[in-house]
Amino acid sequence: xxxxxxxGSGVDLDAYLTRVGYEGDVAADLSTLRGLHxxxxxxxxFDNLDALLGRTVVPLDLDSVQEKIVRxxxxxxxxxQVVLMAAVLDRxxxxxxxxxxxxxxxxxxxxxxxxxxALLVELDGEQWLHDxxxxxxxxxxxxxxAENERLDGDWSFDLVREPTGENVLRFLGPxxxxxxxxxxxxxxxxxDFELLxxxxxxHPRSPFNxxxxxxxxxxxxxxxxxxxxxxxxxxxxxxTFRELDEAEALSAPGEIFGITLEPGDxxxxxxxxxxx
Length: 276
Fold this sequence. Notes:
This protein has a single domain (8-274), classed as Arylamine N-acetyltransferase fold. The protein is globular. Helix content is 31%, strand content 25%. It has 276 residues and is an alpha+beta fold. It has eight helices and 13 strands. The chain has helices at residues 13-20, 30-43, 49-52, 62-71, 78-92, 190-202, 246-255, 263-274; strands at 46-47, 95-103, 116-123, 126-130, 143-144, 150-151, 156-161, 167-173, 176-183, 213-217, 222-226, 229-233, 240-243.
């Protein structure tokens, strides 16, 4: 197998499939693309904990990402998960490119930095938006990349094209559409990921380096923990919010988000929650 910039030849595909609980056939087709997407978001949480554990580097090389997410049972933030997912798709034989989106749901702005990265997969003359790492409001399966495309079900989404040419992915909740992020299809490469990774880890305006942000997308319930506030989202219902006490917040990574932490990491998080 010839190597590519997505490092498919270096991924331990069997270990990954076991980690996400995927037991179906694997081929470069739409059924596999959907199945892997759903299995990944069900099993692997968005996890920014390294930024709170005093880690000065969040490595994006495939070996480090596999060690953390696949072997140690951790989650990862967007860039780590995209590195892993891209290697898996490359290994299977999919053709795709990466793009960067400007998150709107938390900032309310259309002009923030393009920090979120996802993939556009080409299949049979069509493109599919494949995004496993946006978190609690994100896609549970790929959506066809086409103007005014809609994905219906327990969780519904659509894509709209703005006059500027920017595409916007929206979550269609009970209170109306929620804009998740806007993007163009300008191609991004792994070298671009390193710059975004550095911003997320070190910049004072990064949303990910000063409080715990954990997110998980499961078939019937989605969870988002921001600091000590836990949001629970169910199909067709407004989100509910609850303030966690310290014990609940420290147990949440394992009990709610399926993240395996070492005892020392939990002690470090306790100090972070306590504040200066």
